[in-house]
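User: I'm putting together a small comparison set for a docking exercise, and I want a reference complex before I start. The sequence is below, and the ligand is 7PJ. Could you produce the 3D structure with the ligand included, as structure tokens?
Assistant: Of course. I'll restate your input first, then give the structure tokens for the complex.
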Amino acid sequence: MTPARPLVMGVLNVTPDSFSDGGRFLDPDVAVAQALAMVAAGADLIDVGGESTRPGAAPVGEAEEIDRVAPVIRALAAHLAVPLSVDTTKPGVARAAMAAGASVWNDITALSGASDSAEVAAALGCKVVLMHMQGEPRTMQDDPRYGDVVAEVRDYLAVRAEAAMAAGVAREAIWLDPGIGFGKRLAHNLALLAHLDQIVALGFPVLLGVSRKSFLKAIDPSASDAADRLGGSLAAALAGADRGAAILRVHDVRETVQALKVRAAITGARLLGPPPTVQEINAPSPSKGEGQG
Ligand code: 7PJ
């Protein structure tokens, strides 16, 4: 069943090179303050990332990535009641993050980053986000190609979910993600958003990350700064919600929650009664009781 309102996952970057937050959250105290603000604004969970996946970003070693995310997750777990996820491709980082208090492994490689990723996820017993990506972050935007992007992404996610379950990950622990912007041109991203219901139809909760992404700039070239893409981010998030997204991964929590509340209020109002018929639409309103038809 489609939930009335998707959950909102707030993005907390602890990378010095992340394109939209500029490495402001390396200090655990600063990170906790930012996460508390996101929860106060309505975030249902917080995603902590220590490796930038921006095209061209320098790779981070496992020890360095653990040093970035583990202290922040430990501090967040002490201060927050919401679930914490870790955005990593490395099983060792996922293990350290779960030990520090996280409960979700958000893996842009869909547990294909290391040969033992799926086994580690099963042993950890955490939730796992399986995301589609064509290629690898450094070069993925060079020349992405698909025949039928929606079918290819859907089939890939179905295969990765089967592989995770074969390794012992519970069906109830799996979330899927079409990976907007990860080895995709504008037309690919738009097709995936327009037909997100086909990914939702696989029967797993679908997480969607559109917040501040480059495809929004391709539609509105004036939005060259990531922080200038709020309107586009909200429009895309609502389109995803309408097609059954269960979790929205966003930078602008307060604005997204407000947009979702308005959407839910409209949906609820519509459910109060049937729309008027063509006959009724010009009839005098019963409460006013005046005016002749
Ligand atoms: C995503 C992500 C996404 C999931 C990033 C950015 C790039 N994880 N990590 N889905 N994007 N699951 O935030 O623009 O779309 S990093």
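The pocket of 7PJ is lined by residues 11, 53, 87, 106, 108, 129, 131, 177, 179-180, 207, 209, 213, 249 (CB under 6 Å). The chain has eleven helices and eight strands.
User: Thanks, that's exactly what I needed.
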